[in-house]
Write a structure and sequence with these properties.
26% helix; alpha/beta; two-stranded antiparallel sheet; 258 residues; 14 strands; single chain
């Protein structure tokens, strides 16, 4: 078993192979676009990673797979949906297809296509998710009464009107808007911390083990730590591993200063 609460630097398939079966409660990750893309000078095998994630996931555990298609020769690859369907073929449920809406996306300025301002958030589960703390939002029309039923007689007159008052809060829908994580000089594509935090809060409990097999700059680990979860980060690029460790160390210093 790999040491918990640590970023492990190396090939994610090799590192996943060191984990026992059914030891992970939640996976939250954003892999490189497409199944064999060069990543920091390295390539990765989607099928190998997918098989290992299915193996290590606990019954009732969840994989959150945030991904978008690359565009090649003016055409989207379609690999995102192919990946989701492959997880289904491995025996996982496609529990929800959410959308991460990028509020400050980078315009592509393509002459013949609209800018892509969102990514898929595939929520895959090993059976029924054991943890689902659905987040709420403020209802803009709270207190307004809606007619929800009644009878109309032969003269077209409405009787037995039934009204329901809109509650102050309601469950969020599955299109989640966030500013993008942007990029830094050290890491070009930082996962939005707010998005990851909300995903971890929804699909896990304190003390659960949260895994990110494409840890990058450590955003999933940072969110898990802030929410009282254990974490495992796997990252093949030594520079990104160092960035993640610095972020987590800074987080500890901030907590100690409170």
């Amino acid at each position: 078993m790999l040491e918990l609460d640590k970023i492990h630097c190396g090939d994610n398939c090799d590192l996943l192979g060191q984990l026992p079966r059914e030891c992970i409660d939640l996976v939250v990750t954003s892999p490189p676009y497409d199944d064999l893309r060069t990543y920091g000078g390295h390539s990765w095998d989607f099928f190998g990673v997918a098989w290992q994630l299915k193996r290590v996931l606990k019954p009732g555990g969840v994989i959150v797979w945030v991904v978008a298609d690359a565009t090649k020769d003016g055409s989207e690859t379609g690999s995102s949906m192919e990946q989701a369907l492959h997880f289904k073929r491995l025996g996982l449920n496609l529990h929800d297809t959410m959308i991460y809406q990028k509020l400050n996306y980078l315009p592509q300025n393509a002459p013949d296509r609209y800018d892509q301002a969102w990514e898929y958030v595939f929520v895959l589960s090993a059976g029924r998710p054991k943890n689902a703390q659905l987040l709420t939002k403020k209802n803009a029309k709270a207190g307004v009464s809606l007619w929800t039923g009644g009878r109309i007689n032969q003269d077209g007159v409405l009787h037995d009107k039934v009204f329901r008052e809109i509650a102050d809060e309601g469950i969020r829908h599955n299109v989640w808007p966030y500013p993008t994580g942007g990029g830094t000089r050290d890491h070009p594509a930082v996962f939005p911390l707010a998005l990851v935090t909300d995903l971890v809060a929804t699909w896990s409990n304190p003390g659960d083990v949260v895994l990110d097999p494409f840890s990058g700059s450590g955003t999933t680990a940072k969110a898990a730590k802030e929410l009282g979860r254990r974490f495992l980060g796997l990252e093949i690029n030594p520079e990104y591993c160092a960035i993640a460790e610095r972020r987590l160390s800074q987080q500890v210093l901030e907590l100690e200063a409170v």
